[in-house]
Amino acid sequence: MSTTATQDLDAIAAAAAAAAEPFAATNPRERAAAIVAVAAALEGAADELVAIAERETGLSEARLRGELTRSCVQLRLFADTVVDGGYLDVRIDEADPGFVLGPRPDVRRYLIPLGPVLNFAASNFPFAFSVAGGDSAAALAAGCPVIVKGHSGHPELSARTAQIVAAALADAGMPHGVFQLVTGQQEGVAMLKDPRVKAGSFTGSIPAGRMLADIAAERPAPIPFFGELGSVNPVFVTRAALEERGDAIATGLVTSVAGSAGQLCTKPGFVFVPAGHGLDPAIADAAAAVPEHRMLNQRIAAGFADRRAAILAAPGVRVVAAGSVRLDQDGHGWVTPSIVAVSLADLIAGRAELLDECFGPLSILVEYDEDADLAAIVPTLFEGNLTATVHAGDSEDAPALRALVRVLTGHAGRVLFGGWPTGVAVTPAMQHGGPWPATTNDSSTSVGTAAIGRFLRPVAYQGAAEHLLPAPLRSANPWNVPQRFAPAGESASWGSASR
pLDDT (tens digit, 9 = 90+) per residue, 75-99? Predict the structure, then answer.
């Protein structure tokens, strides 16, 4: 992948900075129409883009077409979010000479775009978390120019996608510089350090994400950095759930682990099951039916092969489905799913060898005794995760189960019941984030309409004349956005709602 020249980096940053103010000022319907135009352009180029992605990533055509559809759906979802205007969080306090603490001035607050955003594209989602993925969609919806650092795992796709997105935005009348691409690892770091960049987003490994987050924090003027890093996504299965639907749990596990060769941030890495669960035959049969799948690139394949070998060699590990790794003449890895089992005691004893994330189609069954206090054990084993899952009986409501759910709520960004964490729905309520090391910022999400909030900051106007106010704060409300009013005189009744 060729890298962006130093002089071009400066020009890109300058163009993004110049576009920031006019783009932020665009009428909501115009900005939304531009975002919808991007989705339509990507759909129009689907055959071309999917063919490139299939060649560069080894992912299946069906997976890639579904992912491209997801990207277009989230673009349209954000377009509607922009038109709705609720994300601006407009608050208007009317001037109140009788305010209980003394005369109150007219104060009006809302959220404004941060400015140019640098998005580091991910390798494992060449559409949904790459050039035109969720981070780019959220930043554009917020009114921020976007600079994407393309991923070396799919360079041709990155360049072509950026061309399509930039052309669609330009044709829709958006300012020059509102969407651009840079390439090269050091070039991405240099752009993150540029004072004209006001926020960063990233999906990838813990070491790379931590390095970039530290760079963002150590700038002379630190900037927000939203990194999605590592997650092992533990799953907990009760005896009652096994008795009700053990075979479905076995096949569901294999499907979740094997999907896209396990190269998903939400893949279930550890599945806690009661000792004597009896799932081995069903798991082995389901895994044996999964065809070989190519991994994204040679580096990921080599890393998976090493990590899998270390897990298989760890004390106490029992192979349920061996799976396979085959490296071709180019170093690409072709894999089938591996499922192993270990007792809870051996997991605790071998935590140094077993607890780290294995990026690929491998999962560890952790066999626990019925009297094990899972709620107490979880914090000793795991840091933060994107997800945690509970498979319980349909009517199960034991104190230990409630305690486990409470612990998982503090441990993960999304708690699932009866399902599997792979397949993140693009919906307004979705939370895709979690405590460190799942993300660098556990108060945000990278999926769902709340993701727009990462690229906004609040500002208040006090005592401003109507004609000097931005459109969302004017009493005439020309953008027709939701406005929350605090009328004069209401302070005298504060506290009455609790009576």
Answer: 999 999 999 999 999 999 999 999 9
Neighbour count for residue 225 (Cβ, 10 Å): 23
206/311 same-domain check: no
In a domain, 317, yes or no: yes
pTM: 0.94
- Spatial contact of 382 and 232, defined as CB atoms under 8 Å apart: yes
261 lies in the same domain as 389: yes
**Same domain, yes or no, for 383 and 365?**
yes
CATH of the domain at 96: 3.40.605.10
pLDDT in tens, 8-41: 999 999 999 999 999 999 999 999 999 999 999 9
Provide the domain count of the chain: 2
In angstroms, rounded to a whole number, what is the distance separating the alpha carbons of residues 488 and 419? 50
Angle 130-131-134 from CA coordinates, rounded to 5°: 60
- List residues with catalytic annotation: 228, 265
